Structure formats: C-alpha cells, structure tokens
Amino acid sequence: MTRPFSEDIRERALARADAGETVRSIAEALQIGPSCVTKWKNLRRETGGVSPGKIGGHKKPVLSGTNADWLRKRIHSGPFTLRKLPPARLDQETISSTHKSVSRVRLRK
C-alpha cells in the first residue's frame, strides 16, 4: 500500500491553487495527479485541514453475536460446505456476508 503525500506538498499545491493556478498545471509542476489537488481542496473545505486520514486499522467482523454462535454450533454438529451454508441459512436471516467472512468466524469465543 502506498503512503499518503506529505502535508508539505499538500500545502504547496493548495497555495498554488489559492494563487489562481489551474489544477493541471499544479499537478504537472509537483508531479502528482490532478485528482490529488482536487481532493485536497475538497478536504480543506470540508475539514479545514489537509492532514491525511487514518490508514488501515481493525475491521469489525461481519458475523458476530447470535449469528456467530449459530455458525459455531453448526460447525461442531457435523460436516457441511461453506459454499452451501450462506444461501441455506444466512439469506434466511437477512445477513449480508461472503464466504470469506463465514470462514473467518472464530470457532472458540
């Protein structure tokens, strides 16, 4: 994964934009994409700053609580395939998930 541009280059780009330079000329001069300049302008307008947002982090599991408990019981009760499980049960429960999220459920609490 790539790293965000530094705040220095963001501020230089926005200073040029404030001076009236076009987005494309700023992008060419600083060797960045034109969309970066536009996104930074929007970011500054919405938040008042140009700091990059958080990258990465923990994503909550899709299946948790009673649904995960049911799945653990089903796993321990006998053989089945993950490909047949979601349409058979999870769609009835109106749980939006993928085979990958089903396979990530921890077997133990």
Q: Measured on Cα atoms, how large is the radius of gyration?
A: 24 Å
Low-confidence stretches: none
The best one-word shape is rod-shaped
Please tally the helical runs, counting DSSP H or I stretches of 4 or more residues.
6
- Estimate nothing, just give the exact number of structural domains: 2
List its salient traits.
rod-shaped, 2 domains, 109 residues, mainly alpha
Give a verbal description of the structure.
The chain is about 50% helix and about 0% strand. It has about 110 residues and is an all-alpha fold. The protein is rod-shaped. The protein has 2 domains: about 40 residues; about 40 residues, no CATH class. The protein has 6 helices and no strands. The longest helix has 14 residues. Helix 2 crosses helix 3.
Topology:
Layout: H1 7-18, H2 23-30, H3 34-47, H4 66-77, H5 85-90, H6 99-103
Helix pairs in contact: 1-2, 2-3
